Amino acid sequence: MTQIFLSLFPLLALIFGGNILKRTKFLTDGFWSGAEKLNYYLLFPAMLFANLSTATIHLGMIKTIFTVLISILLITCIVLYVIRATQKTDAARFGVYMQSMVRFNTYMGLAIVAALFSQQGMTILAITLAMCIPIVNVLSVLALTRQDNMDAQSILLSVLKNPLIMACVVGIAFNFSGLSLWAGFTDLIKQLAICSLPLGLLCVGAALQFTELKKELWVLFLNTFARLLIMPALAYMVCRFLHLSQLETQVLVLFFALPTASASYILTKVLGGDHQLMAGVISLQTLCSAFTLPLVLLWVM
């Protein structure tokens, strides 16, 4: 428990610090938008490339992780679409529910795995991200789009233009190519990668909007309970059913115990979804994860 607390404290402190800096206006709104853009297009892709390009990747590991991810996401989507059919939920709200279940706060995941599971755990998480990022982006866009407005070409282009997806693809391709980078360029990528996590966690805190928690509390709490407790329990059952190793099970259960991504707010707003509800979901899930993540980690470890 002490190890778990020591691993979670720095990232929770950075998130809390980011929120304080934003609320006190110590840093301007322009700084936060610039920091998010820098991290999304440069620092975070550098981290993904650094991990995937040097990791020891086995095809068996990729197949196993892919099977787990597809199984969990398929079950989740079936349940959500059944609820949508029975409740007649429109795309604006359904897109929020979908993203709150299938998207994940990558910064928190990377920080916890790096602290608890070292390089081997980071490899498992990096492979998981490489597979999951394109899938959940497609699911999110489809859920937010009205059926009569769906355009396969635009959805495909939005996925291909995602810098995180491209970093994963290039990193894995470089890994299997057998090539090596010049030492100076390798050190540069490592320095960029180091900057990504603390800046990303500060931005997560700055993006929290607690004023939105006053609306539809029962929906928010039900959603948060499902995301932070039911999803990791489902992941644990699937991992045990498929006889995954202890480390693979621990990393994947942690992955599905993460709160949803703060970037979900931007996508929801751009595609005309209920962005106020999305802001409330993100804020409550992130806040409650400070209590649920230690419990999930203690249980699975």
Which keywords apply here?
about 300 residues, mainly alpha, Na+/H+ antiporter like fold, about 80% helix, globular
Verbal overview:
This protein has 301 residues and is mainly α. The protein has a single domain, classed as Na+/H+ antiporter like fold (Up-down Bundle). It has helices at residues 2-23, 29-54, 59-87, 91-102, 106-144, 152-160, 163-177, 183-207, 217-241, 246-256, 264-270, 275-300. The chain is globular and about 55 Å long. It starts with a helix and ends with a helix.
Global outline: globular
Largest sheet: none
Terminal Cα separation, in Å? 10 Å
State the domain count.
1
CATH architecture, by name, is Up-down Bundle
Beta strand count: 0
The mean pLDDT is: 86
Specify the number of helices.
Answer: 12
- CATH structural class: Mainly Alpha
**CATH third-level topology:** Na+/H+ antiporter like fold
What is the structure about, briefly put?
This protein is an all-alpha fold and 301 residues long. It has helices at 2-23, 29-54, 59-87, 91-102, 106-144, 152-160, 163-177, 183-207, 217-241, 246-256, 264-270, 275-300. Keywords: Cell membrane, Membrane, Transmembrane, Transmembrane helix, Transport.
SSE layout:
Layout: H1 2-23, H2 29-54, H3 59-87, H4 91-102, H5 106-144, H6 152-160, H7 163-177, H8 183-207, H9 217-241, H10 246-256, H11 264-270, H12 275-300
